[in-house]
Specification:
By secondary structure, the chain is α/β, with parallel strands linked by helices. It has six helices and seven strands. Strands 1, 2, 3, 4, 5, 6 and 7 form a seven-stranded mixed beta sheet that branches. The radius of gyration is 25 Å and the shape is elongated.
């Protein structure tokens, strides 16, 4: 046994650079699968937590995966809006219907139109200012406020919908009335306004 240890020591000291490179390669080949497994488990846990806290999604006749991901993560999907009457008809005792209007952006960040039921359901509270109540008011998630360097009282225009279409709606000027507390979810990267 002493012979093997002595030979290993001599091999490492004879070529230290090659030995260090070999040790690095072995270390990376062991650490990479472990790290990726841990990160994927963490990512899956966060995805499941948001999905499990959203009981039912009602939307237009479209791909259910597009509808789910656009609703949970505020990604603009190529789907039509459903009439407000249909949302009212979906209301049942013990079931809260939370309307969402998606598709608009402010500086490439999602602008989500919703009402007070969404903030109650997700336990979102303002850190500064208040929640939007009137049309033209907006509250920013904590990450969005930090990235855009925006504070309460500032104004933000919505992104143009189509720069080449003269008939498209022009940008709307929104007044920042609140900065939301950090939630650790996609809500931190979004901007929230009230529905008309």
């Amino acid at each position: 046994m002493k012979c093997v240890v002595w030979l290993a020591y001599r091999a490492v000291t004879a070529r230290p650079l090659v030995s260090a490179l070999l040790a690095l390669c072995v270390g990376v080949s062991i650490a990479l699968p472990i790290t990726s497994t841990l990160l994927l488990d963490r990512f899956e846990t966060s995805l499941r937590a948001r999905a499990e806290s959203t009981p039912v999604i009602v939307g237009p006749d479209a791909s259910r995966f597009d509808l789910t991901f656009s609703t949970l993560y505020f990604r603009a999907a190529d789907t039509d809006a459903i009439p407000r009457e249909l949302a009212r008809d979906a209301q049942r005792p013990g079931l809260t219907v939370i309307p969402l209007k998606l598709g608009d952006t402010v500086r490439s960040r999602p602008l989500v139109g919703t009402d007070d039921a969404y903030y109650e359901h997700r336990a979102i509270r303002p850190r500064q200012g208040e929640l939007p109540f009137l049309l033209g008011e907006v509250a920013l998630g904590s990450s969005a406020a930090r990235a855009l360097n925006i504070s309460v009282g500032d104004t933000l225009p919505t992104d143009p919908t189509d720069g080449l279409n003269l008939a498209a709606s022009s940008p709307v000027e929104l007044t920042v009335v609140g900065i939301l507390e950090r939630t650790g979810t996609v809500d931190d990267d979004a901007l929230f306004c009230t529905l008309p």
